[in-house]
Automatic annotation (TrEMBL):
EC number(s) reported in the record: 2.7.13.3
Compartments in which it is found: Cell membrane
Keyword annotations of the record: Coiled coil, Kinase, Membrane, Phosphoprotein, Transferase, Transmembrane, Transmembrane helix, Two-component regulatory system
Catalytic activity: ATP + protein L-histidine = ADP + protein N-phospho-L-histidine
Domain HAMP: 160-213
Annotated protein name in UniProt: histidine kinase
């Protein structure tokens, strides 16, 4: 038995923890990326603002705008403007030194009667950007933690809904284990993962329940077969016991004729019991899968040999063989046993005129055994191939025909009972065999 060692960790817990782990990894990376983009964009905006104010000052200087008016027009929120003329006169805010939190742009004006050669200082306090960046960092941390918490709660609730098909599958499996049969998942779609799994689960249940039914039927048939076999054996065994006890009671002074009758009864009943046991063993070999020793077999010659055997055993019968020479690849011993069983069955059924017909087609060969007995009603033509089933006038064990059909099917052939082709009274059994050896 193959053991896969499946880890049975809770699927809900595994999916939830995996999703949270992915979220915990993704959120900081996303937060760092957002903050880096924000900081870079803020730096670019500040530089653009300062450089834009400096360019505006150059344009105003070319328009010969007065220094005070120039300072007022380039003034902006967050920007400190200082204009120092060549003579040292200052306009705007007092100048400051560029430091860690002060971003400064210095420009020399190129035009204007009073502003030519003046120095323009544009200063911006970057502490505001740092505060905005810190605020963004706090917002990202709080929102990330809130997102993780909300996601965990939604995952716990959502897993119940998402894994509901697996819960149904588990419930069905437990009901099957408890002995309830016939339940199926019946997925609405087969092109999804759960659909394919549910369909495979239903197919497995079909196979298991089919195998279970087959096993129960086989067990029931075996039980009936054993009971019937015991019943059949009881008759010859009882005859043996009765004859043996009678011989013992008669003693040595019993009449010779009486002793001879009892001894003949002992031989007949022991032979009957031995034949039944032998037939049971043959059926057991057929069920287990017999091994055929195939070689070329001439069917007409085989039929003539079996006809001659029956003439010696029962000289009062008329046995004829007709047909054409046909060769098949088969086990000659098993084919001989099939014909022997069919001929013995015809004799036991009361037939006195038997005929064996051999013919062939392109792919199959046929052997038909006909008799002039009472025939077999159409309703019983399959039943007679069941084990231990006797015909109305049969004196056999009821195993000859099942054994013959078993050997025929082992050759990939067929054995059936039908009406005689010439419409005469009696029965006909047709054996069909492939002309060549079938693949193993």
């Amino acid at each position: 038995m193959t053991e896969f060692g499946l880890r049975t960790v809770s699927l809900r817990r595994r999916v939830t923890l995996t999703a949270l782990a992915v979220l915990i990894v993704v959120l900081p990376i996303t937060g760092f990326a957002v903050k880096a983009v924000f900081d870079a964009q803020a730096e670019r905006n500040l530089n653009t603002l300062l450089n834009g104010r400096a360019q505006l000052a150059q344009q105003l200087a070319r328009q010969n705008v007065a220094p005070a008016a120039l300072v007022r027009r380039i003034d902006a929120d967050g920007v400190r403007v200082t204009l120092i003329l060549r003579g040292g006169q200052q306009f705007g805010a007092p100048p400051v030194e560029a430091a860690g939190e002060i971003r400064q742009v210095r420009a020399t004006l190129q035009a204007g009667q009073r502003t030519r050669g003046a120095t323009l200082l544009l200063s911006a306090d970057t502490s505001l950007l740092d505060e905005a960046s810190s605020t963004l960092r706090v917002v990202l941390l709080i929102s990330g933690a809130a997102a993780i918490g909300i996601t965990a709660l939604l995952l716990v609730a959502g897993m119940r809904f998402a894994l509901e098909p697996l819960d149904r599958m588990t419930g069905l499996a437990r009901s099957i284990a408890a002995g309830v049969r016939g339940g199926r998942l019946q997925p609405t779609r087969h092109d999804t993962e759960l659909g394919r799994t549910a369909a495979a689960f239903d197919e497995m249940l079909d196979s298991l329940e089919g195998a279970e039914r087959s096993a129960r039927n086989s067990e029931e048939r075996m039980r009936e077969f054993v009971a019937d076999a015991a019943h059949e054996l009881r008759t010859p065994v009882a005859g043996l016991q009765s004859a043996a006890e009678t011989l013992l009671q008669l003693g040595p002074d019993a009449p010779a004729e009486r002793r001879a009758d009892l001894e003949l009864l002992l031989v007949r009943e022991s032979r009957r019991a031995g034949t039944l046991v032998s037939d049971l063993l043959e059926l057991a070999r057929i069920d287990a899968g017999i091994e055929l020793r195939r070689r070329p077999v001439h069917l007409l010659e085989l039929a003539e040999n079996q006809a001659e055997r029956l003439r010696l055993v029962a000289p009062e019968l008329t046995v004829r063989t007709e047909g054409e020479p046909v060769q098949v690849i088969a086990d000659p011993d098993r084919l001989a046993q099939i014909l022997a069983n069919l001929l013995d069955n015809a004799r036991q059924a009361g037939g006195t005129d038997l005929r064996i017909l051999v013919g062939a087609g392109e792919r199959f060969a046929e052997v038909v055994v006909e008799d002039n007995g009472p025939g077999v009603p159409p309703a019983d033509r399959e039943r007679i191939f069941q084990r231990l089933v006797h015909g109305e006038r049969s004196r056999g064990s009821g195993l000859g025909l099942p054994i013959a059909r078993g050997f025929a099917e082992a050759h990939r052939g067929q054995l059936i009972c039908l009406d005689r082709a010439d419409n005469h009274p009696g029965a006909a059994f047709r054996l069909t065999l492939p002309r060549t050896s079938p693949p193993s």
